[in-house]
Specification:
By secondary structure, the chain is α/β, with parallel strands linked by helices. The chain contains 25 helices and 29 strands. Helix 10 (about 280-295) packs antiparallel against helix 11 (about 300-330). The longest helix has about 30 residues, at about 300-330. The chain is globular and about 85 Å long. Keywords: Oxidoreductase. Pfam families: FAD_binding_3 (PF01494), NAD_binding_8 (PF13450), Oxidored_FMN (PF00724).
């Protein structure tokens, strides 16, 4: 096999060394346009996981790296003159020049041909002459752009400028330092990569960069100014630059990574923000996976497919974490007012890869100090601290999220709802929410939707709230009121989500006459008189909800249902006073909120669920969501329940663990209103992390409560917590310890004799 590698960075060089080592008969050539010593940046951080892979695949490279690594455990966060140190993190770094030199030496010793100061031939030429072409030509890959129609790349720019610098001394920890200046906020990321050298990255929002005049300064003037701003962190010492300049980070993704015998690797295929230190790590891991797949598969096509299948999910997960970290630093000014230790904890857990649980393992003393500052009593996890909304005090931060059950008869909740909601109330959550309860028969999603438009329905709900209050004292139960709008008259989810009924359909109404899906029923545009009737239907349902004994009421303004349809520019095309500008689109939902608030008891809280983004071009953005939340808060909403999407059928959500939390975080800090975070929050560790970091006040979980109605009780048991934040029902106390399982610790043989 003849192999051509475009790009002599760490990923390309390591791929070359591995491919040659695994099969010395291979003819491997690396083209690098720069000189051997030219590189971007100064230090490289590699994780223990990556190093383990290197050690297993090539002990020679690992041993050379090991001799040069600088290791440290601590992270320092310096903000407003206070330094907080967290230990136990475990980093290893070395100089980028040294890394390249090690890889150059290894490639030459194996017989890899290295061609420097030379542009690689055109990819088409290489593909014709070589059996395999590896494009490792970086974030601005010309190979990727040459075949853009095949790889279908997406390159996203971001809001911060940064510059890669170095200092001629070693920090004694990974250091994050915040500088608040007259022009705005700057941050320093610094870490040692040698006994006498550190990488220093200075980053700031684009507008701060411009106001501070960095765009008008020469390179040395910029470097000197950064050194002056961070003189305390640098101990008065200067900074130096290499080939770096002020730039903005670009996130690269590709739909495909291979084309024929051409494959992308490293930054050419994907990028991840430097704040999680993963660019070189990902490239090296790509090289390991590519070499392994070529060894394991019996054809090149199968090997490249296996490589892509193996690496894509790993890279996507890393990119989600990197995106969360990047956005945290972009929005850094939002968090400056947090208590000092909470700010430090928030920074450390920003990517959601470091959590409350593993931070306690790494540094229990630091984590305990954050908990004390937050107000956690001794031995109390953050999720079991109380939270007050108006006259209601929730004993913990767990909410059973609204989940449509489609199991009512004529809108009347029955035994199923009693068991479903009753079981979850007994399960320990602070607040249990009903499914969306419809304000009229025409406002149902399916024939099985529950309602509050008759007295009989209200009486049935009273049976359920009485059970919760009597059998699970301390648990609150809330009702979510809504109207399906254009998404009504459909089958139950398990028979065909959003599919119209085969018979018995009812007519639909909405902000504008737009069907939810092509071929679906077109709703009638609501007239002014109908808007008045609907407002009264919501108010009447709220009055019944109060008499039925609910502790909290949530107005459903999300997921493309009726009120959500008014808020989104994609679903509201009206030209009257209820359409057009954001203020006009808000008008009817606010009128409904005011009407409900007027009849809802003053001491009981009201929340509003919104879709903070439509996940579609031209739809609601997070900036719009902040405005929507601010308007509802001004009208008296006690909290905003922050969901996303389901507004238009052509949405493209970016799913991932706790993927909607950043929207709640943004609203909480910009609007200064309590929020409920929802969306793929599945572990008690996540709940503790999000609450303690100040990203949310409450966490709503849906599927975990379907899997385990006693999720909150079990979370307490697994954390060894016994206290007022969660109470086992008396008949269940005997089950508060995990049952024993079969023995797994059988004695091992004393002797093992070789044959």
């Amino acid at each position: 096999m003849r192999v051509a590698i475009i790009g002599g960075g760490p990923g390309g060089l390591y791929a070359a060394a591995l491919l040659k080592r695994l099969d010395p008969a291979r003819d491997v050539t690396v083209w690098e346009r720069n000189a051997p010593g030219e590189t971007f940046g100064f230090g490289v951080v590699l994780s223990d996981e990556t190093l383990g892979g290197i050690e297993h695949a090539d002990p020679v490279v690992y041993e050379a790296l090991r001799q040069d690594f600088v290791r440290w455990d601590d992270i320092d966060i310096v903000h407003r003159g206070t330094r907080h140190r967290s230990g136990g993190h475990g980093f290893a770094a070395l100089g980028r020049h040294r890394l390249l030199a090690i890889l150059h030496e290894r490639c030459r010793s194996l017989g890899v041909r290295l061609v420097f100061r030379t542009e690689a031939p055109h990819p088409a030429t290489l593909c014709a002459e070589y059996d395999l072409v590896v494009a490792a030509d970086g974030v601005r890959s010309t190979t990727r752009e040459t075949y853009a129609s095949v790889f279908r790349p997406q390159v996203t720019g971001h809001r911060c400028r940064y510059i890669w610098l170095a200092a001629d001394f070693a920090f004694d920890a990974f250091r994050f330092e915040i500088a608040e200046t007259e022009h705005g906020v700057l941050q320093l990321h610094g870490y040692p990569y040698a006994a006498d050298a550190s990488t220093v990255i200075v980053e700031m929002r684009e507008e701060v960069w411009r106001k501070a005049g960095f765009g008008e300064l020469g390179e040395q003037e910029s470097v000197a100014r950064c050194a002056k701003i961070f003189k305390e962190a640098l101990r008065g010492r200067p900074l130096r630059s290499g080939t770096s300049a002020w730039t903005t980070f670009r996130t690269v993704t590709n739909e495909r990574w291979s084309h024929g015998n051409l494959v992308l690797l490293g930054d050419a295929a994907h990028t991840a923000h430097f704040s999680i230190g993963s660019g070189t790590k990902l490239a090296v891991e790509d090289a390991l996976a590519l070499a392994a797949c070529l060894a394991e598969q019996d054809s090149l096509d199968k090997a490249l497919a296996a490589y892509e299948e193996e690496r894509k999910p790993v890279v996507a997960s890393t990119q989600r974490a990197a995106r969360a970290s990047l956005e945290w630093f972009e929005n850094l000014p939002l968090y400056l007012g947090q208590p000092p230790r909470q700010f430090a904890f928030n920074l450390l857990t920003r990517s959601r890869r470091v959590t409350h649980g593993n931070l306690r393992l790494r540094d229990s003393r630091f984590t305990a100090s954050v908990e004390r500052e937050f107000g956690c009593p001794a031995g109390t996890p953050p999720m079991f601290t109380p939270f007050r909304l108006r006259g209601l005090t929730l004993r913990n931060r767990v909410v059973v999220s609204p989940m449509d059950m489609y199991s009512a008869a004529d809108g009347v909740p029955g035994d199923f709802h009693l068991v479903h909601l009753g079981a979850r109330a007994l399960g320990g959550a602070g607040l249990v929410m009903t499914e969306m309860v419809c304000v009229s028969a025409e406002g149902r999603i399916t024939p099985g939707c529950a309602g509050l438009y008759t007295g009989r329905q209200a009486e049935a709900w009273r049976r359920i709230t009485d059970f919760v209050h009597r059998r699970s004292p301390g648990t609150a139960i809330g009702v979510q009121l809504g109207h399906s709008g254009r998404k009504g008259s459909t089958k139950p989810m398990w028979e065909g989500m959003d599919e119209p009924l085969p018979t018995g359909n009812w007519s639909l109404v909405a902000a504008s006459p737009l069907p939810y899906k092509p071929g679906g029923q077109t709703p009638r545009e609501l007239s002014r008189a109908q808007l008045t009737d609907l407002r009264e239907q919501f108010a009447a349902a709220a009055w019944r909800a109060a008499r039925a004994g609910f502790d909290l009421l949530e107005l459903h303004c999300a997921h493309g249902y009726l009120l959500s349809g008014f808020l989104s520019p994609l679903t509201n095309r009206r030209t009257d006073a209820y359409g057009g500008s954001p203020e006009k689109r808000l008008r009817f939902p606010l009128e409904v909120f005011d009407a409900v608030r007027e009849v809802w008891p003053a001491e009981r809280p009201m929340t509003v669920r919104i879709s903070a983004t439509d996940w579609a071009e031209g739809g609601t953005t997070v900036e719009d969501a902040v405005g929507i939340a601010r308007a509802f808060a001004a009208h008296g909403a006690d909290a905003i329940d922050v969901s996303t999407g389901q507004v238009v059928a052509e949405e493209r959500p970016e799913f991932g663990r706790s993927y909607q939390t950043p929207f709640a975080d943004r609203i909480r800090h910009e609007v200064r209103v309590p929020v409920i975070a929802v969306g793929a929050i599945s572990s008690w560790d996540d709940v503790n992390s999000l609450v303690l970091a100040g990203r949310t006040d409450l966490c709503a979980l849906a599927r975990p409560h379907l899997f385990d109605p006693h999720w909150t009780l079990h979370a307490a048991a697994e954390q060894g917590y016994e206290g007022p934040g969660v109470v086992w029902p008396a008949p269940y106390r005997a089950g508060s310890r995990r049952p024993q399982t079969g023995r797994t610790d059988a004695p091992k043989p004393r002797l093992s004799l070789g044959g």
